[in-house]
Amino acid sequence: MSKKTMEFKAELKELLHLIINSLYSHKDIFLRELISNSADAIDKIRFDSLTHNELLEGDEEWKIKIIADKEKATLTISDNGIGMLIDEITDQLGTIAKSGTKNFVESLKKTNSNDYPDLIGQFGVGFYASFMVADKVTVISRRAGDRNNGVRWESDGKGEFSVEQVEKDKRGTDVILKLKDDCKNYLEEWEIRSIVKKYSDYVEHPVVMDVEREVPKPGEEDKEPPKQKREKKIVEETLNDRKAIWLKSKNEVTEEEYHKFYKHISRDWEDPLKVIHYNVEGRQEFKVLLYIPKKRSLDLFYKDLRNGLALYVRRIFIMDNCEKLIPEYMRFIKGVVDSSDLPLNVSREILQQDYQLENIKKNITTKVLNTLKDMKEKEYDKYCDFYKEFGVMIKEGTHIDFENKDKLQDLLLYESTKTENGKYTTFKDYVTNMPSDQKEIYYIIGDNRQHIEQSPYLEVFKEKGYEVLLMTDPIDGWVMSNMMEYNKKNFKAIDKGDVDVDKKAKKEKEKKEKEYKDLLEFMKNKLSNVKEVRLSTRLTDSACCLVADEYAMGAYMERVMRSLNQEVSKTERILELNPNHPLIELMQKLFEKDKNNSNIVIYAEMLYEQALLAEGSKIENQLLFTKRLNELMVKECSSLVQE
Ligand code: ADP
User: Does one domain contain both 233 and 253?
Assistant: First the structure.
């Protein structure tokens, strides 16, 4: 057959144009694409030869060879894969527009160029990526078993290509790129080496290159000879590691190998806390290797943190940080997913890919949660170490991952009024230990255990012997705002709304309410920062405390929000008084005796300020507070002196 020139199909022209012009800053990937085509071609012949051994023509040393010719400025990627017939090459490289091409072109148009790397990762752009670096591409190929019919395909990527019959003595395909002037760097050994390392390190077949090395002269091989006894020689070197440990079965990988790989992908210098390695078979097949680090990385809360896992498709690197593979709250996890059935190139619908990725994500989420549950049950100390570093991520999960909320809730640990310092309980244990008359799960949020343990809110709970969870993580307020119940028991913040734990105290309070009515009203009118003054059932020792409305933001949460520079409107709170406290009783007596006594206002203000201190807030006019306190001390002291 004589040389024939044909035109690229219209859609391909558009694709070519877009690839060349918009993916310009990611040119490196052309090599990944060509190596991946070669690897596929080798997979095909390997498979076909299982039933047709003669196809091998005696050559089954699978190999992808990269040849850089600096004089001619050509880079050749040569394989001994299945090869192509002339009709195949005409169809495959020129006229068939694959079903996904259109989608890819559409997505490219819609995507901000910063996100191109992700898009390329998702699709692969195939053979045509060559035209980013080459102004002419020649493909010489021969189909396995078709000894006399080699084919030569050539194009400058501008719209036409030519095909002709040629001779080629070996099976396989050579893709020869005549590099553009500004792409000559791809002829350099180190450049090729680093691209292969980056994108194709785990390709199963060896990717080799001839390199010049100093080797011992003949007869000196066993020694470490000095320079004069060495000579320069061209040797073929394999550039890729080929050790995809995630593809091996668990018992084939040593702990040391797992850890080494972890350090390689995470840049962590410590060993991981936990390795999760498994294999999913069936309708969708993929392999997963995950690591839970020992320590948080510093960037865990950076806005721009790139989370996600590395995605491979049949050993070929697709992208780092694939966010679709793992929920955001598991961003501390490092690892690799290798899918057997995701498409490498533009050949399938994006939607379908999304659906497949979504399935993998679901599977990984469940696996991680089950692993943590297991660790909590069987290696509790190790789990506590994990929790100290990443508990906050689990909390984030309870707020976001509704589907797994139950599992996540069971992974939470909290200190409580009944645990030792630094020791934890769980919701489950809490509920199991609840006395039968206790209806709700009590908790309080604050800066630190020491402070909240002494706060007036706990008084009645201590007296009744009810356990209260002590929450001291800045994220707890946000988490609890979304946590309604556990095991049909409601959560109850003990510094909000009404508490109803002591029936007797409640009855007494109701009785006293009439008696105190006017004083309470009077105080409310004098204190402009509180919306109500009422009697309390939660206090036994303290005179007063401030509480928030049931669904309002608590004082601690307000402080957290402010520290994050968030605007929070000041919520007015309720001042609760302990009717059994001597000070409150005396104030009532004084009020009955002389409503207009100016001291009542001063006492009211000082009570409010005490309550502010008790909840950990600041007093607005600290100087006035100290001055008044001093005056009271002077009075007390002088009466002592006069005695
Ligand atoms: P994809 O690999 O997604 O199909 P490409 O544009 O990279 O897209 O390649 C198109 C087709 O050309 C391949 O599907 C394959 O049939 C053929 N092809 C490309 N490179 C080779 C090669 N090195 N050996 C054999 N066939 C190849």
Answer: no
Q: What is the Å distance from ligand 1's center to 98 Cα? A: 11
Q: Which residue out of 87, 92, 155 has the highest number of ligand 1 atoms within 8 Å of its CB and is therefore the one to mutate?
A: 92
Distance CA 45, CA 55 (A): 8
Range of the domain at 133: 4-219+227-238
37 CA distance to ligand 1 middle (Å):
5
Token reading at 367: 């696996």
Same domain (yes/no): 340, 441: no
Nearest alpha-carbon partner for 130 in 98, 160, 175, 85: 175
* Nearest to 270, CA basis, from 241, 245, 291: 291
Task: Please give the distance, rounded to the nearest whole angstrom, from the Cα atom of residue 320 to the centre of ligand 1.
Answer: 24
Does residue 179 share a domain with residue 34?
yes
Is residue 432 in some structural domain? yes
Residues 48-85: pLDDT tens digits? 887 888 888 888 899 999 999 999 999 999 999 999 99
Q: How far is ligand 1, taken at its centre, from the CA of residue 92, in Å? A: 7
Q: Is 575 a domain residue?
A: yes
Identify the CATH number of the domain in which residue 485 sits: 3.40.50.11260
Out of 29, 32, 35, 37, mutate this one to test ligand 1's pocket (max ligand atoms within 8 Å of CB): namely 37
For residues 81 and 92, is the Cβ–Cβ distance under 8 A?
no
Q: What is the pLDDT of residues 246-302, one digit of tens each?
A: 998 999 999 998 998 888 777 777 899 999 999 999 889 999 999 999 998 766 666
CA-based end-to-end distance of the chain: 127
Of 40, 80, 104, 138, the one to substitute when testing ligand 1's pocket (max ligand atoms within 8 A of C-beta) is: 40
